[in-house]
Amino acid sequence: MKEYIPDDHNYALKARLGRIISVSSYVALLGWFTLWHLFLIPIPTGKPWVIWLLHMLPLLAFIKVIITGNPRGHAWLCFVLLLPFIQSVLNASNPNTFIYGLVYALLVSTLFASAMMYARWQSRYNKQLAHWASEDKKSSESSEG
């Protein structure tokens, strides 16, 4: 593991902001899928809940990660979001689904960026905490001896 280089960034505040935006955009994306596929424009030829479920399953697989705030899980969520992003751009390029695709792309992009930055900032904050704990341990050992 690389040696920690102390810095004066407030990673706790940044991580909290990234987490708030991640959770908000995650919930908004799930709500957008539900609203669009089940209420606004349900597919008339098929069962709309099947299409809805196919869109939701990859995202619902990360619900535990979103709830617990695991930085590594947020990084993996970013990898999974690449495919929905491609789909959102394709939907935005179709005149019939332009609004859906535009909102979809915006929500996926926001979730991607916030999850990526949360993973980075929370990891840095965890390293800061470990460094501060080791500094406290060193200072308490030197004062005892």
What is the compact description of this entry?
With 145 residues, the protein is mostly helical.
What is the topology?
Blueprint lengths: L10 H30 L7 H13 L2 H6 L2 H10 L1 H11 L5 H47 L1
Helix pairs in contact: 1-2, 1-6, 4-6, 5-6
Proportion of strand residues: under 5%
Oligomeric state: single chain
Main sheet summary: none
Span of the ends, CA to CA? 29 Å
**Estimated structural class:** mainly alpha
Low-pLDDT parts are none
**Average pLDDT over all residues:** 91
- The run of helices and strands is HHHHHH
List how many beta strands DSSP finds. Answer: 0
Radius of gyration: 20 Å
The proportion of residues forming helix, as a percent range, comes to over 70%
What key phrases describe this protein's structure?
single chain, 145 residues, mainly alpha, 6 helices, elongated
Description:
With 145 residues, this protein is mainly α. The chain is 81% helix and 0% strand. It has helices spanning 11-40, 48-60, 63-68, 71-80, 82-92, 98-144. α1 packs antiparallel against α6 (98-144). The two termini are 29 Å apart.
